[in-house]
Design goal:
6-stranded mixed sheet; 18 strands; 6 helices; 4-stranded antiparallel sheet
């Protein structure tokens, strides 16, 4: 579960006031209110997974559908996680280890468990092999296929290392995981088979292993930092699909405009108080042609009438007037179980700004206002570009 810790009563009532028997390894660090909400949200997830599986059964698609249940990281608070060290954001086992279940009736044996380490990078080659999709496209693919193992066939255990990296300014933290060991960013070595909670540092007892993994971590960090630097100014690609969404997350605000919350993901732009303000996206147009530009906005009464303009710096533009007042409240917070656990959204209204002729290549797309009729222009969650075939 991800914050906001928001869950309906039908799931929360089961855990309201419960003192969980299974606690974090350091109970003093645990927020039990957050844990109760997380447990209720897991119940909600289970219910929704059941709905998906039941629908596949009713449509008679189960035998021809691969279902994966997977998460992206460890828990977002200090709560029970099998006794592992760390939580979301940490490079220890508790921060990066995730549940992974896969189901394909008649193809993957029921109850099969694979102890060999694997990562998200293995999904592409694994699913490609399971579905007989060729991957020889002239480019290397990260990860290895786990298809033979998933079908219950014996396969040679790979002597691989999986790296986890967390970039910082001009530096990065790296942790290395093998089938038996984990080397953390501080150079501590742990036997994950005997000590999955990372409590006993074996770096002095096994110096050769620690040095080998440390060199691998250093090489990986060097390689990745170079790639981070080389790709620091990645433009947002437009035109691969018919529709491309440019979210506020990837935009840059100019002037008085602010984000609704500090974290860019799932934020929107607000406080647009001057016609000198604008929002830009660095884009690379992959397929030249005409694109409809749609902005998703809210506008308070008294602010309607402003004319929005969108176009490439140095290129052509299109514009339209905001005629409709659309000022919904933020989503109801009554089911948030931990005060201010995250940010909240609201509903957005689409406004077609017209058609843009976009040339292939990179540039800056700018959303601006020609005037301001009230106190503010609009709030916006982003822009959609729809290729006109």
């Amino acid at each position: 579960p991800h914050s906001p810790m928001f869950v309906p009563d039908r799931f929360y009532n089961k855990f309201d006031g419960v003192d969980p028997e299974m606690r974090h390894r350091d109970p003093k660090r645990e927020d039990v209110y957050w844990t109760r909400a997380a447990l209720a949200m897991c119940e909600n997830i289970d219910w929704n997974v059941g709905r998906v599986l039941d629908k596949l059964d009713s449509l008679k698609l189960s035998d021809n559908t691969i279902v994966i249940y997977f998460s992206d990281n460890g828990p977002n608070s200090f709560r029970w996680n099998g006794g592992f060290k760390g939580k979301k954001g940490a490079l220890d086992e508790g921060g990066v280890r995730s549940p992974f279940f896969i189901r394909w009736p008649g193809q993957i044996p029921e109850g099969l468990k694979i102890d060999e380490i694997a990562g998200a990078i293995d999904l592409l080659p694994t699913l490609a092999e399971l579905t007989n999709i060729p991957t020889d496209v002239g480019k290397p693919i990260d990860g290895i296929s786990m298809a033979q193992r998933l079908k219950g066939m014996r396969a040679r255990t790979s002597n691989r290392s999986i790296f986890s990296i967390k970039a910082a300014k001009n530096d990065a933290e790296v942790s290395v995981r093998t089938n038996q060991y984990r080397l953390d960013n501080a150079g501590q070595l742990f036997d994950m088979q005997k000590d999955p909670g990372q409590r006993i540092n074996l770096a002095e007892k096994h110096p050769k292993i620690a040095r080998k993994l440390s060199r691998a971590a250093t090489d990986h960090k060097k390689e990745m930092l170079a790639l981070f630097e080389a790709n620091a100014d990645r433009p947002f690609t437009v035109g691969y699909a018919k529709s491309t969404t440019l979210p506020a997350r990837d935009g840059v605000e100019h002037g008085t405009i602010q984000r609704s919350v500090r974290s860019p993901n799932n934020s929107f732009f607000k406080n647009w108080t001057s016609k000198e303000d604008s929002i830009t996206w660095d884009i690379e147009v992959m397929n030249a042609g005409e694109y409809e530009a749609i902005v998703y906005y809210t506008c308070a009464r008294g602010d309607e009438g402003t004319t929005l303009r969108i176009g490439m710096d140095g290129g052509n533009h299109t514009q339209a007037k905001v005629k409709k007042v659309w000022d919904p409240p933020l989503y109801d917070k009554s089911m948030e179980r931990v005060a201010e656990s995250h940010y909240f959204m609201k509903d957005w209204e689409p406004l077609n700004l017209g058609t843009l002729l976009l040339e292939a290549g990179s540039g800056t797309l700018r959303l601006s206002s020609l005037d301001i009729k009230g106190k503010r222009v609009i709030d916006t969650i982003g822009v959609e570009l729809i290729r006109v075939d």
